[in-house]
Amino acid sequence: MPSARSWRAYPQTYRLEAGKCTGCQKTFFPPRQVCNTCGGREFETFRMGYTGEVLTYTIIRTPDDRYQGEAPFAVGIVRMDDGPKLTVQIVDVPFDDIAIGMKVKLEFRRIYAEGHDGIIQYGHKAVPVRG
Ligand code: ZN
User: Fold this and answer.
1) Rounded to an integer, what is the distance from CA 26 to the centroid of its chain?
2) How many CA atoms lie within 13 A of 20 on its CB side?
3) Considering only Cβ atoms within 10 Å of each terminal Cβ, which end of the chain, N or C, has fewer?
4) What is the CA(27)–ligand 1 centre distance, in A?
5) In what order do the strands lie in the sheet with 43-47?
6) What are phi and psi of 74, to 5 degrees?
7) Could you give the 3-state DSSP secondary structure of residue 10?
8) Which of 84, 78, 123 is nearest to 105 (CA)?
9) pLDDT of 63-121, one tens digit each?
């Protein structure tokens, strides 16, 4: 079964709800309780856009058990146009074509199938924005 924690986080993750500190305007995804820049505790919730760019990436060839069937795959840090940075899988592009600075957008995809009971987890993956 998915943990209670991931289950509660599901709607927020699905909608890409992020938090913006009302003190310094820094943005966080997922939202947090205390701003790590100014220590503020007041946040506005906003819905992030789906686009961003790749800051860095790596190819995972020996993942942990949950992702065994999917290796190798690319994981990158994406800076969203709205500010937050996310660690996401990069899909639908040959590894050789992934580049720092590449424009991507998030799509909601299957992440992994868990164990023999076939529970499937969903989350966002980054796909290239083709011009
Ligand atoms: Zn702040």
Assistant:
1) 18
2) 10
3) C
4) 8
5) 27-28, 17-21, 43-47
6) -100, 135
7) helix
8) 78
9) 777 777 778 999 999 999 999 999 999 999 999 999 999 999 999 887 766 666 666 66
